[in-house]
Amino acid sequence: MGLTMAPVASVGGWFGAVLRELALWAGVLLLLVGGLSLYRGYARRQLSELVDETPESDVTEVRSEGTARVRGRVVPRTDRDTFESPIKGDEDCVLSAWEIRELYDAPKSNSWENAARGVRSVPFALADDTGKILVDIDDTVVGNETGEVVTPEAILASAGVATESVHCEFETFDVHLETGYDESPPGRTAEFLARTDGVSLDPMVSDFGGSVVDGSKRRYLEETVQAGDEISIVGSVVPRRQGAEVTTEPSDLVFTASADTPLRISERPFEELTDGGGLLLFGILAGLAGGALLALRFVV
Questions:
Q1: What is the C-alpha separation between 143 and 211, in angstroms, rounded?
Q2: How many angstroms separate the CA atoms of 197 and 139, rounded?
Q3: What pLDDT was estimated at residue 92?
Q4: Distance from C-alpha of 286 to C-alpha of 30, rounded to nearest angstrom
Q5: How far is CA 92 from CA 102, 124, 137, 239, 300, in A?
Q6: Is residue 72 very low, low, confident or very high in pLDDT (cuts 50, 70, 90)?
């Protein structure tokens, strides 16, 4: 009898060890996913509350410094105040939101990673039937040479780019270009990246020995705001003139961005965006499930 029970006990012990290991990693994964969902849901809820507290105004109703929300048509200041987008090649752009992802085809690294992202913009006007107001956003780059690619803002824009100072969200945010490890992007894109601080286009090398990784790739994503597009903006409005505290004309004001108060730009009206409730609920459930699995790992 003893000879037959020993293998059974051994199999049972092995099976229990496998279950504990699975419970551990599944629990950790669920806690991570739950935490990310809670963070995104909380950020969405904050945006929803900001939108609720800031009714959409006609441009002429924006007459003093503070937070405002408008929706209007993009109008360049002059015919020369536009550019060709660096990745898609769109004409008459006033803003480009872009991102670079890298795939390192190496052991334990076979996944796409965010290597750089940013927003390029020129000052432009937002117009409705009542008037115009200026929008002025500084160019922003979060690049793989700065060591700050993985930031809390990286996951906030589900279809677009989010940095500390500006969040741009579009209907879609697609890959428009892919290159191999030994390929350079087309001239337009290469020139833009060469003059953009914080972005490295050095050959992609492995963490294991520093050799070039043959199967690695880069993807380039971009979406743009062009002359004539309809967009929504919510954020800080400040006087255009130094020292001016109160104004009576929208032409004396400008929408701008800062780390304290990000400027949010959306192709869709803000009322159509989700309030984050679904993400918060999923985050809570995933966190509870992850905690239960981790508890089970010490019981089985």
A1: 22
A2: 11
A3: 94
A4: 5
A5: 29, 11, 17, 27, 63
A6: very high
Cα angle 153, 171, 228; round to 5 = 110
Q: Tell me the average pLDDT across 132-156.
A: 77
Q: E-strand spans in the chain?
A: 66-76, 93-103, 112-121, 124-127, 132-135, 140-142, 160-162, 166-169, 175-180, 217-226, 230-239, 253-256, 263-266
pTM of the predicted structure, to 2 decimals: 0.77
Q: What is the DSSP letter of 289?
A: H
SS (H, E, C) 226-269: ECCCEEEEEEEEEECCCCCCECCCHHHEEEECCCCCCEEEECCC
DSSP at 221: E
* Percentage of the residues of the chain whose pLDDT score is greater than 70: 73
Both tokens of 24, joined, read 């551990």
Residues in the chain: 300
